[in-house]
Amino acid sequence: MNNFQTILVAIFLAFFVVGVLIFSGLIDLDSGPGPDNISGKVVVWGTFPDSFVSTAIGMVDNNDLNINYVKKNASTYQQDLIEAFANGNGPDLFIISPDMIKRNDNFVYKIPYGTLPKESFRNLYIDGADIYLDKEGIIGFPIVVDPIVLYYNKDILANEGIVSPPKSWDELFVLNSALTKRESVGSGVLKQSMIALGQYTNVNNAKDIIATLLLQNSNPIVKRGEGGEGSEGYVSMLNSNVLKSSVSPIEAVLEFFISFSSPSDTSYSWNRSLPNSLDMFTSGKLAFYLGYSSELFNIESINPNLSFNVTEIPQIKNSTTKRTFGEIYAIAVNKKSGNLTSALGVANLLSEGEVAKEVSISSSLPPVSRTLLSDKPTDDNYLFTFFNSALISRSWLDPDKVKTKELFGSLIENILSNKLSMGEAINKAQGQFELLLRK
């Protein structure tokens, strides 16, 4: 930016921060200055359907401001961004998830903490949104989160006299004998399953389920290094044991996960010959399904007659902190935007207040704003659960979601096939993570 642009952006951000602080209640005024100098054209890219953002954008659009949302194909989105930025025609704003942070670091305009302090950011958004804070500033303005929750078949539980779904993972070991049905005594063939764990290829969201278990065990998987360790300061924590437990978090998670696919184990409830876990659940043959809140409408459309409900994901027994994995979406600003001032204003408007509420309603995803989450929809159990799950959502600095999905798959398969011992498989995965972070 030239000197004039720098001064202009600084002036705008001063007004912007006042507006944010007023809205959050940190400044108690009847009214305050807002970003009324937003004008021109602002192009926004993302993978959300148009219906998720069209109404919200309409609330921001005015005679002086034209916001153009472009829906991109999720499978090519990152490459489209790289090519657009290289050619100098990238969008002013682009919606990102945590797995895009590392790969887009050079393209993002980061809001300095001198303008919007960390504490002010944290007062506005859920704790999990901290993933968008790095040593240089704020990477993006969080908008919605898609947490992993527990869907359960009400009829299967009722048939076995089970009043409520499990709150802790340990309860699964007690419930399994009633909920998993074999074709015959001693048979490895299953006609009904309690939960889909222990395999990888036919377990929907397997990577994110493992990530959830690691996060619940205080393993961040990847962290930002303080001394420039690794590429761009990212350090693999996959095989770390910060709490000095007798068994490392990754070992504990893998032992728990894999136990559900061992026919000789009392927790046996899944094998690789079964259909995909979503298909099993929607066909009424799976008691518990670990899925995203965004999967609700798909489940309903596949089987409108399925009697199911949703609750928070189980936690570690006696744990004092709740965690689930959540895909936390944010709006990032292109640092080379030709209309940087207006881009910043639009990003702010889409992440707070009535506009952010509209994005949440249109997408049926819980907001990231603490203010909006405080108004829980008590008359809708689905949304009530999603809102509560949003508050405990965490994510991780996934360097490449496609390659890490393969990496976790190889880790599980190496153990299941006995190609490698658990220790050897973990060490191999740790090495692969380190290489990936250096790219």
TrEMBL record:
SUPFAM superfamilies per UniProt: Periplasmic binding protein-like II
UniProt KW keywords: Membrane, Signal, Transmembrane, Transmembrane helix, Transport
Source organism superkingdom: Bacteria
One annotated GO biological process: maltose transport
Record-linked PROSITE patterns: SBP_BACTERIAL_1 (PS01037)
GO CC field: ATP-binding cassette (ABC) transporter complex, substrate-binding subunit-containing
Gene3D superfamilies xrefs: Periplasmic binding protein-like II
One annotated GO molecular function: maltose binding
Pfam families: SBP_bac_1 (PF01547)
Transmembrane segments annotated in the record for this chain: 7-27
Family, per entry: Belongs to the bacterial solute-binding protein 1 family.
Family matches, as PANTHER family: MALTOSE-BINDING PERIPLASMIC PROTEIN, MALTOSE_MALTODEXTRIN-BINDING PERIPLASMIC PROTEIN
Name the UniProt record assigns to this protein: Extracellular solute-binding protein family 1
Species annotation: Candidatus Nomurabacteria bacterium GW2011_GWE1_35_16
